[in-house]
Amino acid sequence: MRLFVALEVPEPPRREVRRRVDAVRDRLPRARWVDLENNLHLTLLFLGETAEADVPALAAKLREAFARCPPLALRLEGGGTFPPGRPARVAWIGVEAPDALETLQEEITRAAVETLGFEPEERGYHPHVTLARCPDPWRRDAIDKFKTAFPGPVGPPFVADEGILFESKLSPKGARYRAVETFPMEGEAEGEEVEE
Questions:
Q1: DSSP assignment letter at 115
Q2: How does DSSP assign 80-99, residue by residue?
Q3: Residue 196 belongs to some domain of the structure
Q4: Omega cis (within 30) before 84
Q5: 119 domain-assigned
Q6: Could you report the per-residue pLDDT of 80-137, keeping only the tens digit for each?
Q7: Which end of the chain is more exposed for a tag (fewer CB within 10 A), N or C?
Protein backbone atom coordinates (compact mmCIF):
# COMPACT_ATOMS: atom_id res chain seq x y z
CA MET A 1 0.00 0.00 0.00
CA ARG A 2 1.29 3.46 -0.91
CA LEU A 3 0.50 5.57 2.16
CA PHE A 4 0.75 9.11 3.49
CA VAL A 5 -0.54 10.99 6.54
CA ALA A 6 -2.31 14.32 6.05
CA LEU A 7 -4.81 16.96 7.14
CA GLU A 8 -7.62 17.77 4.71
CA VAL A 9 -8.27 21.30 3.47
CA PRO A 10 -12.03 22.04 3.74
CA GLU A 11 -14.26 23.46 1.00
CA PRO A 12 -14.15 27.25 1.71
CA PRO A 13 -10.36 27.60 1.24
CA ARG A 14 -10.42 24.96 -1.55
CA ARG A 15 -12.93 27.12 -3.44
CA GLU A 16 -10.58 30.11 -3.29
CA VAL A 17 -7.64 27.96 -4.43
CA ARG A 18 -9.69 26.76 -7.44
CA ARG A 19 -10.64 30.35 -8.31
CA ARG A 20 -7.04 31.50 -8.28
CA VAL A 21 -5.71 28.47 -10.16
CA ASP A 22 -8.40 28.89 -12.84
CA ALA A 23 -7.32 32.51 -13.29
CA VAL A 24 -3.65 31.65 -13.90
CA ARG A 25 -3.53 28.06 -15.23
CA ASP A 26 -3.77 28.97 -18.94
CA ARG A 27 -0.79 31.32 -18.61
CA LEU A 28 1.47 28.63 -17.11
CA PRO A 29 3.42 25.81 -18.78
CA ARG A 30 2.00 22.30 -18.76
CA ALA A 31 1.72 20.70 -15.32
CA ARG A 32 -0.05 17.81 -13.59
CA TRP A 33 -2.52 19.63 -11.35
CA VAL A 34 -3.99 17.90 -8.31
CA ASP A 35 -7.75 17.35 -8.20
CA LEU A 36 -8.69 20.68 -6.62
CA GLU A 37 -12.25 19.48 -5.99
CA ASN A 38 -11.36 16.48 -3.84
CA ASN A 39 -7.66 16.06 -3.14
CA LEU A 40 -6.37 19.20 -1.44
CA HIS A 41 -4.48 18.27 1.71
CA LEU A 42 -1.54 19.19 3.90
CA THR A 43 0.79 16.19 3.91
CA LEU A 44 2.43 15.55 7.26
CA LEU A 45 4.42 12.48 6.19
CA PHE A 46 4.71 10.53 2.95
CA LEU A 47 5.39 6.89 3.81
CA GLY A 48 5.43 5.31 0.35
CA GLU A 49 5.02 1.56 -0.07
CA THR A 50 4.00 -0.02 3.23
CA ALA A 51 3.12 -3.64 3.96
CA GLU A 52 -0.58 -4.03 4.77
CA ALA A 53 0.36 -6.18 7.78
CA ASP A 54 2.18 -3.17 9.31
CA VAL A 55 -0.80 -0.82 9.07
CA PRO A 56 -2.57 -1.75 12.37
CA ALA A 57 0.54 -1.04 14.50
CA LEU A 58 1.20 2.19 12.59
CA ALA A 59 -2.44 3.29 12.96
CA ALA A 60 -2.35 2.66 16.72
CA LYS A 61 0.71 4.92 17.11
CA LEU A 62 -0.77 7.58 14.82
CA ARG A 63 -4.00 7.54 16.84
CA GLU A 64 -1.98 8.30 20.01
CA ALA A 65 -0.02 11.12 18.33
CA PHE A 66 -3.12 12.82 16.93
CA ALA A 67 -5.05 12.38 20.21
CA ARG A 68 -2.35 14.38 22.06
CA CYS A 69 -2.55 17.26 19.56
CA PRO A 70 -5.21 19.97 19.93
CA PRO A 71 -7.27 20.98 16.89
CA LEU A 72 -5.10 23.33 14.82
CA ALA A 73 -6.05 26.76 13.48
CA LEU A 74 -4.55 26.86 9.96
CA ARG A 75 -4.55 29.24 7.01
CA LEU A 76 -3.33 28.85 3.44
CA GLU A 77 -0.97 31.67 2.58
CA GLY A 78 1.34 32.52 -0.32
CA GLY A 79 2.48 30.46 -3.27
CA GLY A 80 5.90 28.96 -3.90
CA THR A 81 7.81 26.24 -5.71
CA PHE A 82 10.31 23.48 -5.03
CA PRO A 83 13.23 23.29 -5.32
CA PRO A 84 13.76 26.86 -4.09
CA GLY A 85 15.82 29.12 -6.36
CA ARG A 86 15.84 26.61 -9.24
CA PRO A 87 13.47 25.56 -12.06
CA ALA A 88 10.25 24.40 -10.39
CA ARG A 89 9.22 20.76 -10.17
CA VAL A 90 6.40 21.34 -7.63
CA ALA A 91 4.05 24.33 -7.16
CA TRP A 92 2.46 24.79 -3.76
CA ILE A 93 0.64 27.05 -1.30
CA GLY A 94 2.16 27.67 2.11
CA VAL A 95 0.38 27.00 5.38
CA GLU A 96 0.39 29.36 8.36
CA ALA A 97 0.22 27.15 11.44
CA PRO A 98 0.93 27.12 15.19
CA ASP A 99 4.07 25.41 16.55
CA ALA A 100 1.89 22.44 17.52
CA LEU A 101 1.83 21.42 13.83
CA GLU A 102 5.59 20.89 13.81
CA THR A 103 5.36 18.92 17.07
CA LEU A 104 2.61 16.76 15.54
CA GLN A 105 4.68 16.15 12.40
CA GLU A 106 7.67 15.08 14.53
CA GLU A 107 5.48 12.66 16.54
CA ILE A 108 4.02 11.16 13.37
CA THR A 109 7.51 10.66 11.99
CA ARG A 110 8.57 9.00 15.26
CA ALA A 111 5.54 6.67 15.03
CA ALA A 112 6.60 5.64 11.51
CA VAL A 113 10.21 5.09 12.60
CA GLU A 114 9.12 2.92 15.56
CA THR A 115 6.56 0.79 13.71
CA LEU A 116 7.94 0.64 10.15
CA GLY A 117 11.66 1.36 10.48
CA PHE A 118 10.90 4.45 8.34
CA GLU A 119 13.91 6.59 7.43
CA PRO A 120 12.96 10.28 7.74
CA GLU A 121 14.21 12.92 5.33
CA GLU A 122 17.10 15.04 6.54
CA ARG A 123 15.62 18.32 5.34
CA GLY A 124 13.24 20.09 7.71
CA TYR A 125 9.46 19.95 7.40
CA HIS A 126 7.93 22.79 5.37
CA PRO A 127 4.11 22.83 5.67
CA HIS A 128 2.55 23.26 2.24
CA VAL A 129 -0.30 22.08 0.04
CA THR A 130 0.89 20.74 -3.32
CA LEU A 131 -1.07 22.10 -6.29
CA ALA A 132 0.92 20.92 -9.31
CA ARG A 133 3.87 18.81 -10.42
CA CYS A 134 5.87 20.12 -13.36
CA PRO A 135 7.22 17.36 -15.66
CA ASP A 136 9.08 20.05 -17.63
CA PRO A 137 10.44 22.28 -14.86
CA TRP A 138 9.01 25.79 -14.88
CA ARG A 139 11.45 28.63 -15.49
CA ARG A 140 11.60 31.94 -13.61
CA ASP A 141 8.81 33.71 -15.57
CA ALA A 142 6.34 30.86 -14.91
CA ILE A 143 7.34 30.69 -11.24
CA ASP A 144 6.74 34.44 -10.90
CA LYS A 145 3.31 34.18 -12.58
CA PHE A 146 2.32 31.38 -10.22
CA LYS A 147 3.51 33.21 -7.11
CA THR A 148 1.72 36.45 -8.03
CA ALA A 149 -1.59 34.50 -8.18
CA PHE A 150 -1.23 33.64 -4.48
CA PRO A 151 -0.24 36.78 -2.55
CA GLY A 152 -1.09 36.81 1.15
CA PRO A 153 -3.86 34.70 2.70
CA VAL A 154 -5.75 32.30 0.41
CA GLY A 155 -9.33 31.78 1.56
CA PRO A 156 -10.62 31.81 5.13
CA PRO A 157 -8.75 30.26 8.07
CA PHE A 158 -9.90 26.80 9.12
CA VAL A 159 -9.50 24.33 11.98
CA ALA A 160 -8.05 20.85 11.40
CA ASP A 161 -9.52 18.51 14.01
CA GLU A 162 -8.59 15.11 12.57
CA GLY A 163 -5.70 13.47 10.80
CA ILE A 164 -6.05 10.91 8.04
CA LEU A 165 -3.96 7.95 6.92
CA PHE A 166 -4.48 7.88 3.14
CA GLU A 167 -3.76 5.23 0.55
CA SER A 168 -2.65 6.67 -2.79
CA LYS A 169 -3.34 4.61 -5.92
CA LEU A 170 -1.57 5.83 -9.04
CA SER A 171 -3.43 5.75 -12.36
CA PRO A 172 -3.03 7.36 -15.80
CA LYS A 173 -5.59 9.98 -14.70
CA GLY A 174 -3.55 10.86 -11.60
CA ALA A 175 -3.48 9.65 -8.03
CA ARG A 176 -6.67 8.51 -6.34
CA TYR A 177 -6.82 8.77 -2.55
CA ARG A 178 -8.70 6.58 -0.09
CA ALA A 179 -8.92 7.26 3.65
CA VAL A 180 -7.65 4.15 5.45
CA GLU A 181 -8.23 5.51 8.95
CA THR A 182 -9.16 8.82 10.60
CA PHE A 183 -7.68 10.08 13.88
CA PRO A 184 -9.41 12.71 16.08
CA MET A 185 -7.27 15.52 17.48
CA GLU A 186 -8.29 15.83 21.12
CA GLY A 187 -5.40 17.48 22.97
CA GLU A 188 -5.74 20.62 25.04
CA ALA A 189 -4.60 23.83 23.36
CA GLU A 190 -1.77 25.60 25.17
CA GLY A 191 -3.09 27.88 27.84
CA GLU A 192 -6.37 25.97 28.20
CA GLU A 193 -7.11 24.71 31.62
CA VAL A 194 -8.82 21.41 32.22
CA GLU A 195 -12.07 21.88 34.12
CA GLU A 196 -12.48 19.70 37.17
A1: H
A2: EEESTTS-EEEEEEEEE--H
A3: no
A4: no
A5: yes
A6: 999 988 999 999 999 999 999 999 999 999 999 999 999 988 888 999 999 999 999 9
A7: C
- The torsion angles phi and psi of 148, rounded to 5 degrees, stand at -70, -15
Other beta carbons less than 10 A from residue 170's beta carbon: 9
CA–CA gap between residue 32 and residue 110 (Å, rounded): 31
Distance CA 125, CA 43 (A): 10
- Catalytic residue IDs: 41, 128
Residue 32 lies in a domain: yes
Query: What pTM was computed for the model?
Result: 0.89
Any idea what the CATH number is for the domain that residue 81 is in? 3.90.1140.10
Residue 127 lies inside a defined structural domain of this protein: yes
Domain count, the chain: 1
Domain with 83 in it: 2-184
| 3 state SS of 107 | helix
Write out pLDDT tens, residues 144-195.
Answer: 999 999 999 999 999 999 999 999 987 777 678 899 999 999 988 765 443 4
pLDDT tens across 1-10, in order?
999 999 999 9
User: Are 84 and 163 a contacting pair, CB within 8 Å?
Assistant: no
Asked if 62 and 50 touch (Cβ cutoff 8 Å), the reply is: no
CA distances in angstroms from 123 to 58, 77, 126, 178, 182, listed in the order given: 23, 21, 9, 28, 27
